[in-house]
Amino acid sequence: MEEVLSERQARILEYLRSFILKHNYPPSIRQIMEATGIPSTSMVNYNLESLEKKGYITRERSVSRAIQLTEKAGKPHYTISIPFYGTIAAGMPIPVPDESNFSGETVEVAQEWVPTSKDVFALRVRGNSMIDAYVEDGDLVILRSQEHAETGEMVAAWLEDEKTATLKKYYPEPEHNRVRLQPQNSQMQPIYVRPENLRIRGKVVAVIRRYA
Asked: How would you write the pLDDT of the chain (212 residues) with one tens digit per residue?
């Protein structure tokens, strides 16, 4: 029976496939850490050891960048195109990115990173209010279009009166007749809004970081 990969292991494996296909040599541990949003090189090493034990890669630890994919790892997975609607703030709200102004621009993402190609869209993050959730300035967030969320989920929040949008975690506080939009940055304060002034436009399902 084939062993199931964790989410982190799947991200590392897909990054290894795409990087090796493009460059014809494997990435460094630090490149893997930065590209997959894993918080430390030791955690990358732990997951690489798991991939090796499960038979997806081989490693020569005395040689730099000596990671090789096995036959079990297979080829890079298919990509899908999803619509790109512009920029969203991870900080103070900015004007709403609107699909009605969709220019036709799309982004290519690995099919396995997105639960479905239906009703998903991409936004570019501006700001650092979500860095403790491993979402940084310049990252691409993939969202499923929906108008509801569970407590603690990361959402694209539209503030109707202000006609602005922000990326935050969602915490309803019905006892105070408000919703707390919580940043994931200890240096920043939450935003409180009236429920009738808030429209959820999507839930984050994936974060993609691009490196030159």
From this structure: 345 788 889 889 888 888 887 777 888 999 999 999 999 999 999 999 999 998 889 987 666 678 888 888 765 555 678 888 888 888 776 666 655 555 678 887 766 667 665 788 899 999 999 999 989 898 889 999 999 999 999 999 999 998 889 999 999 999 999 999 999 999 999 999 999 999 999 999 888 876 44
Domains of the chain: 7-73 (1.10.10.10), 79-208 (2.10.109.10)
> 163 in helix, strand or coil?
coil
pTM of the model: 0.62
Q: Provide the residue type at 26 as one letter.
A: P
DSSP state of 135: -
Q: What tokens does 31 get?
A: 């490149």
Q: How many residues does the chain have?
A: 212
Task: Classify the C-alpha dihedral 28-30-35-39 as positive or negative.
Answer: positive
CA-CA-CA-CA torsion for 194, 199, 202, 208, nearest 10 degrees?
Answer: -60
Cβ atoms within 10 A of the Cβ of 189, count?
9
**CA nearest to 140, candidates 39, 79, 211:** 211
The residues annotated as belonging to the active site are 129, 168
